[in-house]
Amino acid sequence: xxxxxxxxxxxxxxxxxxxxxxxxxxxxxxxxxxxxxxxxxxxxxxxxxxxxxxxxxxxxxxxxxxxxxxxxxxxxxxxxxxxxxxxxxxxxxxxxxxxxxxxxxxxxxxxxxxxxxxxxxxxxxxxxxxxxxxxxxxxxxxxxxxxxxxxxxxxxxxxxxxxxxxxxxxxxxxxxxxxxxxxxxxxxxxxxxxxxxxxxxxxxxxxxxxxxxxxxxxxxxxxxxxxxxxxxxxxxxxxxxxxxxxxxxxxxxxxxxxxxxxxxxxxxxxxxxxxxxxxxxxxxxxxxxxxxxxxxxxxxxxxxxxxxxxxxxxxxxxx
Length: 319
What we know:
Elements: H1 14-22, E1 27-32, H2 37-48, E2 52-58, H3 60-69, E3 78-81, H4 85-97, E4 103-106, H5 111-119, E5 132-138, E6 146-149, H6 159-176, E7 182-186, H7 197-210, E8 218-223, H8 225-229, H9 231-236, E9 249-251, H10 255-268, E10 272-278, E11 284-285, H11 293-313
Parallel strand pairs: 1-2, 1-4, 2-3, 4-11, 6-9, 7-8, 7-9
Antiparallel strand pairs: 5-6, 5-10, 10-11
């Protein structure tokens, strides 16, 4: 999952991801409250790129007005009228539950508003799997695409939640790439100590993988960030494992650590960050107003490929 760059040119690691999704049929996507230029343009841009077929849910008059003001083509786009953002969220989720779409996309409503509706026990999209967020990051100067989890949903996950967080990220990786991903369970140090509880969780997660409670990836931890992604740092510290220095999935101890790590990479290293939520009935595309066009397309592409993997596992889910 790495790409060489020609001299003087930055090649987006998202190119292969978008191209892979474009080689499949567009996925019907329910878009909740696309009532800003960036949200509406993101959904229509993904349609124009051949990634999704959007169904827009929100105040129809407002959506048409935004499209007219910003010259966004809504031709052949289905719009389901909803009075306001709360109504749009509940209507969008109801459409997913009815089998009208294989993806859910956040529009311009707040993330917590959408996720409250998703998490509702009776009317939401919960499954037996813990819902978690994965950033798929293109970091300039780093050979591999980095998956960072969980930096968006679970604030202080316990061990059981971390098991699902790890499994969700592995499943996403395998849906959009090949082979077993190398998974680093991050902490501040590489040794296990009761003084840092995340080191104990890391060791337990690795043993869970040994016992088949986590499948599909190669785990190691605890690993500090430097020894997880830098081979020289791993050698200097004497860490020998198939993951150290070559990690592709970075599992953070809690949301605060993950959020700071992802934003450091975004604002200091100028990384792009595509975002997707997993563990619900359908993948959920989360975008931000600050996202680049390429990151928005990558979020849609990753979700579309994951939806395809779910469909292959259960063909009855096809829309």
